[in-house]
Design a protein that fits this description.
This protein is of the alpha/beta class. The protein contains two helices and eight strands, in the order E-H-E-E-E-E-H-E-E-E. The strands form two sheets. The protein has a four-stranded mixed beta sheet with strand order 1-4-3-2, with helices on one face. Strands 5-8-7-6 form a four-stranded mixed beta sheet, with helices on one face.
Length: 129
């Protein structure tokens, strides 16, 4: 196998307008195309590294995400940042739900922050110590 990188990450959304505002306005990801696939739309955003995120908006309401951190499957998406603590202040000021305040994880050589997107997906901001 010759895997080069992550091509994209796909997330089912509960409310596309809240998702668009969160990832576009708050996190600063660049909105790209929207494709109508019949039963659902795929909205594309570019990550700062050039990869994409796909947000699936079903024309019938998606189910609520009832996953916990111990549920099998994807645990979180992590983004490398500078100054996690200042990002936490900004996210809190915008009313984002923080699930783990900024803390150092010396065994991992990282400072991290966990928070939820509007769809209940756990995101992590991480900086190297």
């Amino acid at each position: 196998m010759n895997i080069l990188s992550v091509e994209h990450i796909a997330v089912n959304v509960l409310d596309y307008q809240k998702t668009r505002s969160f990832y576009g306005d708050l996190l600063g990801f660049k909105e790209a195309d929207t494709i109508d696939c019949g039963d659902f739309f795929i909205h594309y955003f570019f990550l700062p590294s050039g990869q994409r995120m796909e947000f699936f908006e079903y024309k019938a309401q998606n189910e609520t995400n009832n996953n916990t951190e111990r549920t099998p499957g994807l645990r979180h998406l992590a983004f490398q940042v500078v100054d996690v603590a200042s990002h936490e202040k900004e996210l809190r000021a915008k009313g984002v739900e923080i699930t783990l305040s900024t803390c150092d994880l010396p065994n991992l050589g990282a400072r991290v922050l966990l928070f939820l997107d509007p769809n209940g997906v756990t995101l992590e901001f991480c900086e190297k110590l």
